[in-house]
Structure formats: C-alpha cells, structure tokens
Amino acid sequence: MQLLVCLRFFATGAFHKLIGDSFNVSECTVGRCCRAVANAIVGVRSDFIEFPKDHKARETKQEFLKIAGFPNVLGCVDGTFIRIIGPSENEADFVNRKGFHSLNVQMVCDAKFKFTSVCATWPGSVHDSRVWRESALCRQFEQGEHNGFLLGDSGYPCRRYLMTPYLNPATDAQQRFNASLCRTRVLVEQSFGILKRRFACLQATLRTNPDQAATYVVACVVLHNIGIESGDVMDKGCDAADANSNQADHQVAYNAQEGSHMRDYIANTYFG
C-alpha cells in the first residue's frame, strides 16, 4: 500500500489530500508513505545510476557514434529546473534565472535515455557550470578516471573532456562539428522530457523542503532507469522548458585553452 501511494504521487503530482482520499488514508499518512518509499529507493541508487566504465564505456561510445558520428562520447550533460515551493531558509537562493523557485538538477544520460549521473542538491540560482565544477563526476574526469568526452551546451566551459559547441563557427569543419554535437546532445533534453512525462510530480511543483524534493527527484530517476532497462520507453520529444535551455543568458565564455585545442583537433580530424 505504501508503494502504491508513493507511485500515485510520483505519477500525478497530486496533493496528498487527494491521494489519501483515493486510498482511504489520511493526508499525513500519504506524506509518510512517500518519504519512506522514496528513501528506500534512493538507498539502492548505486545499483541503477552508474556511469559507464570498461566494456560498458566501449558500448556507450559505439551507441553514441551511430547517432551523428561524434567520436568517443560517454554521455550528454545538462541541467534542468525542478519546481519547488519557496523554502523557509535561504529562499532567494532557490529563485532561478526564469524567476521561480527550483532545484537545478544536473544529469548525464547515455544513448538509450538512461541517466548515468544525477546531482540534485543545488538551488535554482546556481549556474550549470558551477554545479558541474563541484560534482563528483567532474573530479573523476579531472583525475583521468574516464577516457572519453561529455557533450554539453554553451552553459558549460569547454574542457579536454567536455565538448561544447562553437559560438561562432568559422569553417565548414566547425559547422559540421556543431551539427554533430547538437544532434547528439539533444538526447539529454529528450531524456528530461521522458522523465517528466513519466513522473508528473517533476513537472508540477514539489510542495516540500529542498532536501526532500531532491530525494524525490533521485527516486524518480532510479525508477526511470528501471523502466528503460525493461524496455518501457515513452515518447522522446523534448520538454519545452529544457529545449530552451541554450539561450544567450545561459552562455559562458571561459573555455580552457586545452579544451579549445581539443575541440579544434576533433573538428579538423573528424569533421574536416
């Protein structure tokens, strides 16, 4: 019964009162059920949210290569806003650049719309580049634990392991590089769309504190990955909010020199 109550909340995002009426339990009981089940699901996140290594990394690169010919890709990274009610503490920190309260959730997806990394602890006002810089996955790439690239939008700085598009492509090779990167990177936006349509609570407003909201987000991602592994793939159209994430106010310009050199090398070698 607790599991069904929690799944009803994830699938609809309805008020606890309404869910309680449908199960003939109290509003407080619904809240306790949702928290207990979500915490249990998050407790096994490492079994279902795992960045590819070894033979899985090789398979992931081959799957990405088939999409648009971009070589050596391990995943696509982006952030998405998850609406929450204004918290009682540090309320201003959670107001994002679009003017509403949210978490800024960074995720990495593979070529099958499965999420391989999730960071859901940051307020909505924090820029994508900082979320990435402070993440455990960034440290792993900096330490050379992964051999491959992530693809990001212009909200991320270009690094030797993180490829972003040219803001002003000057050659045909750079234009083909951009086209291949964007056709591949759109998978993360499609993955967000699948996730939010499957779990409507992530499209609505999570009426809880930021820590509990983050737990709900991660629990939904675990269930999403289980669905992907079982072959349950929903329509993969982009979510409207995520499709507009690559706007001018979202761009940064502090690319590392080694990242720019690596980007030029890929453009000239593979797309020249």
Structure description:
The protein is of the alpha/beta class. The protein folds into 2 domains: 42 residues; 220 residues, no CATH class. The protein has 11 helices and 5 strands; from the N terminus they run H-H-H-H-H-E-E-E-H-H-E-E-H-H-H-H. Strands 3-2-1-4-5 form a 5-stranded mixed sheet. Helix 2 crosses helix 3 and helix 3 crosses helix 9.
Nearest-angstrom radius of gyration?
A: 19 Å
Number of domains: 2
SSE order: HHHHHEEEHHEEHHHH
Number of helices: 11
What is the average per-residue confidence, as pLDDT, rounded to a whole number?
92
Distance between the first and last residues' Cα: 59 Å
Category from helices, strands and their pairing: alpha/beta
Strand order of the largest sheet: 3-2-1-4-5
How many E strands?
5
Name the poorly predicted regions: 240-248
What is the assembly state of the chains in this entry?
single chain
Helical content stands at 40-55%
Strand content: 5-15%
Give a topology summary.
Layout lengths: L1 H11 L3 H8 L3 H16 L2 H4 L5 H15 L4 E11 L18 E8 L5 E9 L4 H6 L2 H7 L6 E3 L10 E2 L8 H27 L11 H20 L10 H4 L13 H14 L2
Parallel strand pairs: 1-4, 4-5
Antiparallel strand pairs: 1-2, 2-3
In short, what is this structure?
The protein is of the alpha/beta class and 272 residues long. It contains eleven helices and five strands, in the order H-H-H-H-H-E-E-E-H-H-E-E-H-H-H-H.
